Amino acid sequence: MQAHTSRPIRCGPWAAVLVLAFAAGHARAQTPPELPAARPSGSRLFLDCAACHGADGSGVSDGSVPAIGGQPAAFVRSALDDFRAHRRDDIRMRHFSDPQHLADAAELDAVAAHVASLRRGMPATTGDGSQLDRGRSLFARHCAGCHGAGGAAAAQPPRPALAGQHAPYLERKMLDTRDMRSSQSRRHAALAGTLGEAGVSAVADWLSRQPPP
Ligand code: HEC
Ligand code: HEC
Asked: Quick one: which of 16, 161, 162, 177 is 20 to 30 A from 70 by CA?
C-alpha cells in the first residue's frame, strides 16, 4: 500500500523538471531571431482620437473639443506630454494620452505626425463678426510676435496655430488662463486681463476666420 502511494510522490518532481526543461528548450527553439520593432501606425492610433476630434481633426463645432488637424507635430507631441504628466489638466485627454493608449515615445510621435498631416476646412463656429477690425489689430499688437502673422503656428517653443480654430475654444482658453484654471503660460493671463472679455472675443472671432493650417 505504502509503495503505491509514495511512488508518484518520488517521481513527481522529476517528471515536472523534465517537462519544464523540455518546454524551455522547445520555447528557445521556437523564438524567432530579433526583428526590428514594427513602426507604430499613426492612423490606427488616431482612431481613438477621431471619436472626439473627428476624422479630419476639425474638433466639435461648439468649441468644446479643439480643432487639431494640421497643428505642428512638435506642438501636438508637447501637448500630449503635458496632459500625460498632468501639467495640463483635462480628464478626457489625461485618459487618452496615458500609456494604455499611447505606449511609448514612438507611438506618441506617430500619432502626432498623423495629426500634423490632416487637412481640415474652416471651423463651423466663428464669432458674430461685429469687431473684426479690432480683433485683427489687437492680434497684430499683442499676439503675432509669438503666434506668427495671421495666427500661423510657430516652431520654438512649439506654439499652436490659432488660425481657423473654433472661436469659443479660443475664448475659453484665454479666459481660463486669466482665471488660472489652466496651466498655460502666465503671460496669457496678463494679456487676457489687458484685452478684457470684449477684446478676447474680437481676437477669437478674427482668428476663427483665418485659413487653418
Ligand atoms: C473623449 C474625447 C477626446 C478624445 C478621445 C481625445 N481628445 Fe484630445 N482633446 C479633447 C478635449 C476636450 C481637449 C481640450 C482640452 C482643454 O480644454 O484643454 C483636447 C485637446 C487636445 C489637444 C490640445 C489642442 C490644443 O490646441 O491645445 C491635442 C493635441 C489633442 N487633444 C490630441 C488628441 C489625440 C492625439 C488623441 C488620441 C490619442 C485625443 N486628443 C483624443 C478631447 C478628446
Ligand atoms: C510670449 C509669447 C506669447 C504671446 C505674446 C502670446 N502667446 Fe498664446 N501661446 C504661447 C505659447 C508658447 C502657447 C502654447 C503653450 C502654452 O499653452 O502655454 C500659447 C497658446 C495659446 C492658446 C492656446 C491654444 C490651444 O490651441 O490650446 C491660445 C488661445 C493663445 N495662445 C492665444 C493668444 C492670444 C489671443 C494672444 C494675444 C492676446 C497670445 N496668445 C499671445 C505664447 C504666446
From this structure: 177
Count other C-beta atoms under 10 Å from residue 176's C-beta: 16
> CA angle 53-182-114, nearest 5°?
30
For residue 174, give the ligand nearest its CA. Answer: 2
Amino acid at 53: H
Q: Is 59 in the pocket of ligand 1 (CB under 6 A)?
A: no
Q: Is the CB of 203 under 6 A from ligand 2?
A: yes
Summarised one tens digit per residue, pLDDT across range 60-106 is 989 999 999 999 999 999 999 999 998 888 999 999 999 999 999 99
Residue 189: alpha-carbon gap to chain centroid: 23
- Alpha carbons 58 and 164: distance in angstroms, whole number: 9
Q: Which residue do the cell numbers 480628464 mark?
A: 91
What mean pLDDT, rounded, does the chain reach? 84
Q: Is 93 in the pocket of ligand 2 (CB under 6 A)?
A: no
